[in-house]
Amino acid sequence: MIGKRIQTIRKEKGLSLSDLAAKAGIAKSYLSSIERDIQSNPSVQFLEKIAAVLDISVQSLINAGANEDSLDPEWIKLAQEAAESGVSKEQFREFLEFTKWQIEQRKNNENE
């Protein structure tokens, strides 16, 4: 499961649960529930934040050691629909980068 993968990588990087949560800007309790598989379907935004702090790609976080049952079928369907509609991987990456930029802009505006 993805929670155990996050926990393993976090420990390999020498980060405590509190450290990772603080650096990623997420609630420690939520991270803990993910790692303990109480919550098993984290958002893409959550995965992006965790992956950035752990210095790995979201893809490697999701795929390494995962089996088909651990992937949300809606995400698989969404990716298939995007590919079938002609959205290239590069276009999808650009969309993700733009979305991350928008989120960062909102955070910066809230902190002002």
From TrEMBL:
HTH cro/C1-type domain location: 6-61
Domain Sin: 62-100
Protein's organism: Schinkia azotoformans LMG 9581
MF-aspect GO terms: DNA binding; DNA-binding transcription factor activity; protein dimerization activity
UniProt keyword annotation of DNA-binding present: yes
Transmembrane segments: none
Keyword tags: DNA-binding
Keyword Signal: no
GO cellular component, one term: cytosol
Upper classification of the organism: Bacteria, Bacillati, Bacillota, Bacilli, Bacillales
Protein name: Transcriptional regulator SinR
Pfam families on file: HTH_3, SinI
InterPro entries linked: Cro/C1-type_HTH, Lambda_DNA-bd_dom_sf, SinR/SinI_dimer_dom, SinR/SinI_dimer_dom_sf, TransReg_Diox_bact_type
CDD domains with a match to the protein in the record: HTH_XRE
